[in-house]
Specification:
The chain has 328 residues and is α+β, with helices and mostly antiparallel strands. It folds into three domains: 92 residues, no CATH class; 108 residues, Rossmann fold, CATH 3.40.50; 70 residues, no CATH class. The chain is 30% helix and 24% strand. The chain has a four-stranded antiparallel β-sheet, with helices on both faces. The radius of gyration is 22 Å and the shape is globular.
């Protein structure tokens, strides 16, 4: 989902973001693709309708060598009509990001949770991936106080990951039937461990809080919930019905219809947009889109993913199978 688009703010806005990234050290050749991914296929999109503040962020890989970059676009927008607006402030920032580092990934989730508190949005009606029960308080278990409101930030964590997070503050509550969607019970207070194991949930995960900051405890919690999400996604993939097999030289087009925490969802193959096929360019560093296409095509490879290069608002995805592709 996008909260920023060039149909609303114009090409000058895009050029300003490109210049911001160049000033931050991104090459002139890499800055425009980075902005393109952040605007058209953001991993995160947030807005505050009261202040006009907007945020979109994306992970971009393959543009600046092999490095993965986290690109964040922030803007303040005053609407002058249903499709137009005036940007009163904007910025684009970039930092290296190690996708394989679970601690770095968890720190990113914490940042997103904190950002979501500054960008309030209506309650989402999208289904949650699973329920996680958090047993006990990190402070009562010896954690340090004063960094942030624990319950508030953990609630934001649930919204970021699309997980139904339920905080249980009494051991007695663990004796009540837990939701059928419960995949994990996370124990922060050791005194809750016995009741938690009796709750009938296979995954009971303990996190030590004694003498630790709330931020460090949160990072462990976020890392664990991400692992559970990954496990569920892999289990679903393993039982997915047979996938299509791309033929050598085949070109197919799809529009995105949704997104889960780990992959994008695409509709059936469709007609391409109004632009010429020659305008399509390689789509670098779109890991969720790549995983979505891999769920559709048995022999899909990331190098086959393309998108329309005629402006950032077209939004058409394409899979171009090479002429020498070996069908398996």
């Amino acid at each position: 989902m996008q909260v920023l688009s060039t149909t609303r703010v114009g090409s000058d806005f895009v050029e300003g973001l490109v210049q911001d990234l160049i000033a931050a050290g991104v090459s002139e050749e890499g800055a425009e693709p980075c902005v393109g991914v952040a605007l058209t296929s953001p991993t995160v999109a947030m807005s505050n309708t009261q202040t006009g503040a907007l945020l979109q962020a994306a992970l971009v890989q393959g543009v600046e060598g092999d490095d993965c970059l986290r690109v964040v676009v922030r803007a303040r927008l005053t609407l002058s009509g249903p499709r137009k607006g005036e940007v009163t402030a904007h910025s684009a920032s970039v930092v290296p990001f190690d996708v394989a580092d679970p601690v770095e990934r968890a720190r990113l989730i914490l940042e997103l949770a904190e950002d979501s508190l500054a960008y309030p949005s209506p309650a989402s009606t999208a289904p949650r991936e699973f329920t996680a029960v958090i047993a006990g308080s990190p402070v009562s278990a010896g954690g340090l106080e004063g960094e942030f409101a624990w319950n508030e930030v953990v609630g934001a964590l649930g919204r970021v990951l699309r997980v139904d997070v339920r905080i249980v503050s009494s051991q007695k509550a663990l004796g009540d039937p837990l939701p059928k969607s419960t995949e994990t019970v996370v124990v922060l207070d050791p005194s809750f461990l016995g009741p938690a194991k009796k709750a009938g949930v296979a995954d009971t995960h303990a996190i030590s809080c004694m003498g630790r900051s709330l931020r460090d405890v949160f990072i462990d919690l976020a890392a664990h919930l991400w692992d559970v999400l990954t496990r569920i996604a892999e289990a679903r993939t393993s039982v997915t019905s047979s996938k299509a097999v791309l033929k050598a030289g085949q070109h197919v087009f799809h529009r995105k219809i949704g997104s889960s925490a780990t992959f994008d969802k695409f509709g059936d193959a469709c007609k391409k947009c109004q632009h010429e096929e020659s305008s399509y360019i390689r789509y670098h560093a779109a890991p969720k889109a790549e995983k979505g296409m891999k769920r559709i095509y048995e022999n899909f490879e990331p190098s086959m993913l393309y998108h329309c290069g005629k402006g950032y608002t077209c939004g058409m995805y394409a899979v171009f199978a090479p002429a020498n592709l070996k069908e398996s």
